[in-house]
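Hi support team,

I submitted a single chain yesterday and got back a structure, but I'm not sure I'm reading the token output correctly. Could someone confirm the output below corresponds to the sequence I sent? I've pasted both exactly as they appear in my results page.

Thanks,
R.
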Amino acid sequence: MENINTPAKQEAAVKPCLQPRPNVLVSCRSPEGEDNALAVAYCCNCSFDPPMLMVGITPTRYSYKMVKDSGCFVVNLVEKSYKEIFDYLGSHSRRDEDKLAKMNVAVTEAETIDAPILADCPVNIECKIVGSIMTGSHEMFAATIERVHANSALIDKDGNIDFSKVELL
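Hi R., thanks for writing in. Yes, this is the structure output for that exact sequence:
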């Protein structure tokens, strides 16, 4: 029996079907000490115990080799106020310039891995790669969450991040 209040459906494009998605910047460091950050569209939790997440990076991206060779990265959650920097880091390549220096991005050192943290992002997640799989266009890097940093104003009395207090991009 058809419900007359159900909206009509039609076939939609497959490629962008899962929205919204997190807008994150992945920061990384090459074994030679070169820092970079890139916008990543594919990012999600993939395990509760142990805490893990996964990011997808295409092998053509400059940072791909940095992440693969170093075995670690930082996922930086981005506020709406950081959109200009997010857009720049996502549309320019480190092959052409030092994007972090060009945009005056503040960085600090991660505590458990060898990678930079984007200091002006409200949440930073230090990750150590435990495996990966090629899924077609992207290599999905599964990583344990080693440490989470968050602006103190976002932390509740139990140590959880209160995402209602931040306007993520």
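A quick pointer for reading it: The chain has one domain: 24-165. Let us know if anything else looks off.

Best,
Support desk
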